[in-house]
Amino acid sequence: MELILGFLVLLSCLIIGVRHGGIGLAAISGVGLLIFTFVFGYKPGNPPIDVMLTIMAVVTCAGFLQTSGGLTVMLKYAEKLLRSNPKYVTILAPITTWFLTVLCGTGHVVYTMFPIIYDIAIKQNIRPERPMAVASIASQMGICASPASVAIVSIVAFMAMHGHNYSIVQILSIAIPATFSGVVFAALWSLRRGKDLDKDEDFQKLISDPKQKEYVYGDTESLIDKELPTTYYRAMFIFLAGIVIIAIFGSFPDLVPHFSAAAGKPPKALSMTVMIQMLMLTVAALILLTCDVKAKDVGNGSVFRAGMVALISVYGVAWMADTFFDNHITLLKEFLGQTVTAYPWAYALVAFFTSKLVNSQAAAIAIVVPMALNVGVDPVIILSFISACYGYFFLPTYPSDLACIGFDRSGTTKIGKYVINHSFIIPGFIGVISGCCVGYVLAHTIL
User: Fold this and answer.
1) Is the pLDDT of residue 335 over 90?
2) Is the distance from CB of 423 to CB of 414 less than 8 angstroms?
3) How many angstroms separate the CA atoms of 325 and 332, rounded?
4) 3-state secondary structure 363-386
5) How many angstroms separate the Cα of 328 from the Cα of each of 6, 170, 278?
6) How many DSSP H helices and E strands does the chain contain?
7) What share of the chain is helix, strand, coil (3-state, %, to 5)?
8) Is 414 strand, coil or helix?
9) Paired residues of 268 in beta bridges
10) CA–CA separation, 200 vs 412, rounded Å?
């Protein structure tokens, strides 16, 4: 009974907190901590300090990338690719938004791409819903395939804390092909979704009004013809070089400094989480010193603000969840350990619905991964179903999905009468399920 009551407190805090956003979720988690400590008598758990420091370093670097204009260069190249192949926008748009997220570590880059994708689709007489909805899904699936994302650095740190020293390259060798496969399958399904525009009665009725037709087919501002400063390009190359260096150190542990451990034990390699922290801060410093960036402007960028919100959210949620699960670890090990061993897909379902509950892959990982490791779930299973950490497309409440609907001036990307029958749900399920299948095969082959 105590376990059930405690779980209800945890669930209530998550539901209430999500309604107030990421920072609100952290604040409400503090209430849950107080209840667990003073009412249930639980010993407080430990906030994931190493994870938080790593997130802070990565977000700082990404903030400098955006402020320096390096992100603008990436968007310019992405637009050039799409406009050079307009007939294939339904396939190329989601691949492009996925790749941008992989490079930058945040799905927020997709907002700039939506008007470009729409403009290309409508001028090719392609139903805008086809590329736009799956592009929104793809931008979020790329989070769990990016070495610069809060989600991936959290997994690396949590694994290391529990003695599973998988390199970032090993994790990405599963996550990248798994999520990419999910994006491609979802894009292929989207090729024929919905009615063609010339057969869509609602669309034809809309453009029968000359003013509405002008609005629907209006031009969108382009980056292609804009001359960007050389410092923008320099910032992009510095950032990409930093990602490559992280991958090299992750692949070749012998390159990492080793330090003496306790007497009689061999020297121990520097933690990869510490390496990521140092390298990300160094990359940020190089951008600051060579690319005409004002440090005070970094805090005003959308990428930095979103990352800091994720950091605070992970802090509160992970601490509250650790307090609850740590005080019931024996029972949970017996029940969940046996369940996941018998039914590996159970972990994927828990990750999926937790993600929807907290509207964040990073926050879901902060709750589910430590719990799973504590109860003895095989790390291979956790990495197999990394795609399942994206479940917040289930209801169309996430900002990128709402923005996608807003940017589609044709009205084809929409929320249905029953709410759940929206434009994102089928490509979302196709992406996640196929990503999990591919990830399961890869993880059991590679690890």
Assistant:
1) no
2) yes
3) 8
4) HHHHHHHHHHHHCCCCHHHHHHCH
5) 10, 32, 36
6) 21, 2
7) 75, 0, 25
8) coil
9) 259
10) 9
pLDDT at 157 over 90: no
Spatial separation of the C-alpha atoms in residues 213 and 409, rounded to whole Å: 10
Lookup: tokens for 168: 């970032």
Which token pair is 69? 């204009």
Q: Name the token pair of 357.
A: 């509950």
CB 394 within 8 A of CB 137: no
Other Cβ atoms less than 10 A from the Cβ of 125: the count is 9
Q: What is the torsion angle, in degrees rounded to the nearest 10, for the CA atoms of residue 42, residue 43, residue 44 and residue 46?
A: -130
Q: Which helix (H) or strand (E) holds 285?
A: helix 272-290
Nearest residue to 98 (alpha-carbon basis) of 351, 437, 400: 400
Closest by CA position to 9, among listed 44, 38, 33: 33
**pLDDT single digits (tens) 286-313:** 999 999 999 999 988 877 887 788 788 7
- Residue found by looking up tokens 């209801």 in the block: 395
How far apart, in whole angstroms, are the C-alpha atoms of residue 389 and residue 369?
Answer: 10
Structure tokens at 151: 């989600």
- Structural contact between residues 304 and 63, judged by C-beta atoms closer than 8 angstroms: yes
**387 closest CA partner among 147, 137, 153:** 137
Stronger pLDDT, 349 or 168, i.e. the higher one: 349
- The amino acid occupying position 272 is M
What letter would DSSP give residue 398? S
DSSP 36: I
**Furthest C-alpha separation in the chain:** 83
| Strand-pair category, 268-269 with 258-259 | antiparallel
Rounded Cα gap, residues 191 and 131, in angstroms: 8
- Helix or strand run (H / E) with residue 241: helix 230-251
321 burial level (CB within 10 Å; 0-12, 13-18, 19+): buried
Distance CA 408, CA 118 (A): 6
**How many Å apart are CA 441 and CA 446, to the nearest integer?**
9
Separation CA 430–CA 425 (nearest Å): 9
Closest CA to 430 of 191, 104, 197: 191
Identify the helix (H) or strand (E) that includes residue 331: helix 329-342
d(CA 259, CA 421): 56
Whole-number CA gyration radius for the chain: 22
Q: Do the beta carbons of residue 372 and residue 340 sit within 8 Å? A: yes
Write the pLDDT tens digit of every residue in 59-72: 898 889 989 999 89
Answer whether 200's CB lies under 8 Å from 127's CB: yes
